[in-house]
């Protein structure tokens, strides 16, 4: 076979398909999408962990979002909603591909996701590049509403900074002077411990030791022995999921909970409390939700969620629910016309939501402004003691909205 | 660090090493004698923990869970060997890795269907649920001490079976020279089956024992699998005694690494592994000619 004869037809065909491909790409890219008829359903891409360690969290966010849409008769802002679903498996390495698939091939108008911060940051990058509207229903990485903030990116959950900062003052006010902190050595751990330490030292406290375990290791015995030796006034910790259960149980099994009270980020005892059992009793944490919030919105939400799924709603379900509420406000403001983007984003940024968690609004970086509650584990629940700090606003360090 | 704290940390290290040994010994048996790389070993560790949770929930007895879990794992091992693993003998490692990786996915899905995605806790038997006061503010759970004792006994049983029984003799002969053993008329296939099943049962046993002091969660086997491979390679592939030495070394490195060098503790065990392999490429007790 000669090179010449081999090359010619291929080149021509490649030219043709290449052109066609480019045309398709331009047509599908949200930047250039032609006006979609207003009665066509709006496509919401749910990119959440449906399998793996965070599967339950992903499912609850999904259920919460769909509950809101169902309550509105399957429409938001008068526009029918269609769902397309991708399992992100909490794998950052696959995140960019998954997000591109949702935005490109599936032509999702809005993407909702996700739980894992590493995955969320990859999604944020794609959302910034393609200008896709992104609603983050959990991941707390400070950067998402910090240096990586963008008009088309919203968060309905929390920033890591926000969730633990108020605890610094709470513990200092309780007369605690010396604290040992312990967490996994990864971004979320560093951000949560960092925000606590910032406020705690500002109020006269001292961090005696900053202990860390490699993520996601769950062998804590060596560090628990070290805590016993250091004898601080209290311990402040952040772990989640299986690690949180094991840490709390190990801490109690070593008898340390009798002499050195354990404090933590809310996730230490959220979704894990049943497995922790007696060991979790008396642990105080801060979070933007508590199990016994008795505002009417929360009571109605819990009832509806139970009726839909047969399960007790939690903060993850609330974050999904509020994600849909936020989108509803945006779409309502433009009468369902998704192409009136700027107006829609402005309405979402100014949204005041009567959330099950309490009043919810958004700062200039599109991170929630919300109450952070001080909770204590009582009767196997995270019961609210007080509002640790009202209307906590993340400083959104490094955010330049363009 | 005072002497008592040092002693407690030493105890932590030994206890961690004991569980590692139990899981890794199963892996090294299967790896060394059948020549099969079983990536699903960690999945059986997880399955053992879930069985412990479920049987304890159903019967209220951890001892029943211990016996029942090991039995279920052993039977599963025999079935798996009969249906799948026997096809792998003598094949290249890629085929083994693919099959056992497939097993991980299947077991994970079964776990999802049977037990869901939740994190669970298992209560230790009541007579082991107390704790001993070690220092003014630190007590040590009796159950952790019991694990050390139990693992030590299990190790003795394994050593006895391999060194003193007929089946152990066949196992040793097989790992020395499989062809010669077969020529001499030894029914090798049946022994293979039991060795594989025993390996799986040891993984499950590790999972069951760890369940009360750990938690039962999806993906708990992944980390254990990697550690087990480190222990096996460190100790010498196929050597149970090597697995014991390797496990102890990893327990010590991990515990004291976290205390003295917290910033590099995550890579410390791999540094130790690399150093040992430079010194003895076949592992501490591995045959150096291999």
From TrEMBL, chain A:
- Please provide the record's keywords in A-Z order: Amino-acid transport, Signal, Transport
In terms of Gene3D superfamilies, this protein maps to: 3.40.50.2300
Signal peptide start and end residues: 1-22
* PROSITE patterns with a match to the protein in the record: TAT
Instruction: Tell me which Pfam families the record gives.
Output: Peripla_BP_6
InterPro entries in the record, alphabetically? BCAA_transport (IPR051010), Leu-bd (IPR028081), Peripla_BP_I (IPR028082), TAT_signal (IPR006311)
A Gene Ontology biological process annotation? amino acid transport
- Supply the CDD domains for this chain: PBP1_RPA0668_benzoate-like
Q: State the family named in the UniProt similarity comment for this chain.
A: Belongs to the leucine-binding protein family.
Listed name of the protein: ABC transporter permease
**Source organism of this protein record:** Tardiphaga robiniae
From TrEMBL, chain B:
| Protein name, entry field | ABC transporter permease
Claim: Lyase is one of the keywords in the record: no
Gene Ontology, cellular component aspect: plasma membrane
Q: What GO biological process terms does the UniProt entry carry, in alphabetical order?
A: amino acid transport
Entry's transmembrane regions: 16-39, 51-80, 142-163, 194-213, 225-252, 259-279
Family named by the database record: Belongs to the binding-protein-dependent transport system permease family. LivHM subfamily.
Q: Does the keyword Transcription regulation apply?
A: no
InterPro entries according to UniProt: ABC_transp_permease, BCAA_transport_permease
Instruction: Give the UniProt keywords, A-Z.
Output: Amino-acid transport, Cell membrane, Membrane, Transmembrane, Transmembrane helix, Transport
Q: For this protein, what is any one GO molecular function term?
A: transmembrane transporter activity
CDD domains, A to Z:
TM_PBP1_LivH_like
Per the record, membrane topology reads: Multi-pass membrane protein
Superkingdom per UniProt: Bacteria
Q: Where can this protein be found?
A: Cell membrane
């Amino acid at each position: 076979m000669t090179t010449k004869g081999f090359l010619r037809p291929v080149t021509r065909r490649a030219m043709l398909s290449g052109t066609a491909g480019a045309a398709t790409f331009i047509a599908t890219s949200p930047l250039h999408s032609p006006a979609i008829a207003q009665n066509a359903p709006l496509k919401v891409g749910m990119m959440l962990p449906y399998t793996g360690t965070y599967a339950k969290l992903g499912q609850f966010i999904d259920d919460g979002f769909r509950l809101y849409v169902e309550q509105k008769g399957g429409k938001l802002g008068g526009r029918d909603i269609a769902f397309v679903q991708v399992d992100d498996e909490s794998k950052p390495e696959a995140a960019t591909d998954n997000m591109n698939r949702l935005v490109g091939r599936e032509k999702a108008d809005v993407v909702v996701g996700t739980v894992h911060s590493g995955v969320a940051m990859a999604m944020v990058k794609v959302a910034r590049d393609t200008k896709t509207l992104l609603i983050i229903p959990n991941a707390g990485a400070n950067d998402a509403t910090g240096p990586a903030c963008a008009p088309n990116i919203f968060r309905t959950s929390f920033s890591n900074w926000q969730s633990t900062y108020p605890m610094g003052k709470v513990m200092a006010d309780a007369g605690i002077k010396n604290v040992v902190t312990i967490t996994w050595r990864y971004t979320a751990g560093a951000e949560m411990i960092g925000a606590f330490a910032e406020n705690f030292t500002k109020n006269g406290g001292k961090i005696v030791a900053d202990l860390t375990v490699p993520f996601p290791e769950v062998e804590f015995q060596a560090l628990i022995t070290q805590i016993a030796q250091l004898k601080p006034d209290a311990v402040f910790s952040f772990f989640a999921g299986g690690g949180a259960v094991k840490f709390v149980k190990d801490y109690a099994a070593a008898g340390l909970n009798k002499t050195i009270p354990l404090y933590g980020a809310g996730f230490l005892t959220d979704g894990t409390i049943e497995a922790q059992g007696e060991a979790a009793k008396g642990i105080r944490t801060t979070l933007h939700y508590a199990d016994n919030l008795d505002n009417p919105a929360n009571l109605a939400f819990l009832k509806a969620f139970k009726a839909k799924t047969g399960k007790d709603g939690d903060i993850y379900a609330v974050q999904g629910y509020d994600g849909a509420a936020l989108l509803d406000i945006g779409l309502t403001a433009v009468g369902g016309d998704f192409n009136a983007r700027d107006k829609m984003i402005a309405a979402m940024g100014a949204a005041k939501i009567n959330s099950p968690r309490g009043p919810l609004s958004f700062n200039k970086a599109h991170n929630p402004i919300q109450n952070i509650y001080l909770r204590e584990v009582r009767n196997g629940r995270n019961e609210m003691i007080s509002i640790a700090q009202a209307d906590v606003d993340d400083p959104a360090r490094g955010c330049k909205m363009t | 660090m005072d002497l008592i704290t040092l002693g407690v940390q030493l105890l932590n290290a030994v206890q961690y090493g004991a569980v590692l040994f139990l899981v890794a010994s199963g892996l090294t048996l299967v790896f060394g004698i059948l020549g099969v790389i079983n990536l699903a070993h960690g999945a059986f560790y997880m399955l053992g923990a879930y069985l412990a949770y479920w049987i304890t929930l159903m019967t209220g007895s951890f001892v029943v869970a211990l016996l029942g879990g090991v039995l279920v794992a052993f039977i599963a091992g025999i079935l798996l060997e009969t249906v799948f693993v026997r096809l792998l003998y003598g094949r290249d490692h890629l085929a083994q890795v693919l099959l056992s990786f497939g097993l991980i996915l299947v077991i994970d899905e079964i776990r999802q269907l049977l037990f869901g995605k939740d994190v669970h806790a298992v209560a230790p038997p009541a007579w082991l649920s107390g704790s001993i006061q070690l220092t003014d503010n630190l007590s040590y759970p009796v159950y952790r001490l019991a694990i050390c004792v139990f693992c030590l006994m299990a190790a003795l049983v394994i050593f006895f079976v391999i060194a003193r029984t007929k089946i152990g003799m066949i196992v040793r002969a097989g790992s020395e020279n499989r062809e010669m053993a077969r020529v001499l008329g030894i029914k090798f296939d049946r022994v293979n089956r039991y060795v594989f099943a025993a390996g799986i049962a040891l993984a499950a046993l590790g999972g069951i024992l760890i369940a009360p002091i750990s938690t039962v969660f999806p993906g708990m086997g992944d980390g254990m699998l990697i550690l087990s491979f480190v222990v096996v390679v460190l100790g010498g592939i196929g050597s149970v005694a090597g697995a014991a030495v390797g496990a102890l070394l990893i327990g010590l490195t991990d515990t004291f690494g976290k205390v003295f060098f917290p910033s590099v503790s995550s890579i410390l065990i791999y540094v130790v592994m690399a150093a040992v392999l430079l010194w003895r490429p076949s592992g501490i007790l591995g045959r150096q000619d291999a």
